[in-house]
Amino acid sequence: MRRLVLLALVGLGAQLVDGSLGMAYGVTSTTLLLAIGTNPAAASATVHLAEIGTTLASGASHWKFGNVDWKVVLRIGIPGAVGAFAGATFLSSLDTSVAAPLMSLILLALGAYVLVRFTVKGLRRDRLGHPLRSTFLAPLGLVAGFVDSTGGGGWGPVGTPAILASGRLEPRKVVGSIDTSEFLVSVAASLGFLLALGSEDIDFAWVGALLVGGLIAAPIAAWLVRHVPPRVLGSAVGGIIVLTNTRTILKSDWVDASEGTRWVVYGVLYAVWAAAVAWSVRAHRAEQAALDTEIAELEESGAGKPA
What positions belong to coiled-coil segments (predicted)? Predict the structure, then answer.
């Protein structure tokens, strides 16, 4: 019973982060399942089965708050489902020990770009409203779906920074569209796992516990992402991406850094991340104050009144 309660709390926390930042549900939940001895394929299958319910609830909540671009959902979600099914089917025979740090290096570069871009310049608006083309979204979805099912998580960490870096969709809609399209990915991955593994290695009580926690958190996260300023959200997402992928690289066979070295690096990154978020909050307040002043001046001059 304690384990089920813990899993429900993990599902709640993971969905709260995932629904507001567009990533981390699978990574967080799969990490816990692996820590208690679940084999990788069963752990990923358990998480993806739970995600069918959590992503459906999250997508509905994001849609309600106006956070979803349905064209993006379809253009990235359908290729993502294909990649997820393929990854789930072949997980037991795949060696991702080389692919994981390489992907983390790419994601680290994207995360650093997002962090610097949103912290220093805020949301790029010169491209907002420009269409995200299928030639960009389809390959991105295919890769993200494959990584997601083989690694127990990765749809958000791959998809969110790539779309954020394009500057063509505001952060809340990036998060909402990625979360909504993940429903298609979760269904496809679950089908792949059930066909490849059967259901005997999956504990459906664990699936239910993760699902309950996620369902509770989904509407809260959707509300949160609508009310967090884009500049602050971008800095927060960028920091998460940098920290997560730095950890993967430092622990990989490529680097194999000592524990002391890792904690020094983490400490520096946490300090930089906190400073970046604080700077973004301060910059947002300054921008908002300037905007309020401009509106007040227009109203006083009569320029803001209808003719």
Answer: none
- Does the pTM surpass 0.70? The reply is no
DSSP 8-state code for residue 131: P
Q: How many Cβ atoms are within 10 Å of 116's Cβ, its own excluded? A: 14
Distance of alpha carbon 268 from the chain centroid: 23
Domain hosting residue 269, numbered range: 2-301
Q: Is residue 51 included in any domain, yes or no?
A: yes
Domain tally, the chain? 1
Q: How far apart are CA 210 and CA 229, in angstroms?
A: 29
Which residue's entry shows tokens 């679950």? 190
129-139 pLDDT, tens per residue? 566 777 889 99
Task: Give 11 or 307, the one with higher predicted confidence.
Answer: 11
Q: Is residue 221 part of a domain?
A: yes
**Are 51 and 12 contacting, i.e. CB atoms less than 8 angstroms apart?**
no
Calculate Rg over the CA atoms of the chain.
20
Tell me if 215 is assigned to some domain.
Answer: yes
Residue 306 lies in a domain: no
Sign of CA dihedral 18, 24, 27, 28: negative
Length of the chain (residues): 307
Task: Report how far residue 223's alpha carbon sits from residue 64's, in angstroms, rounded to the nearest whole number.
Answer: 9
Q: Rounded to an integer, what distance in angstroms lies between the CA atom of residue 277 and that of residue 141?
A: 29
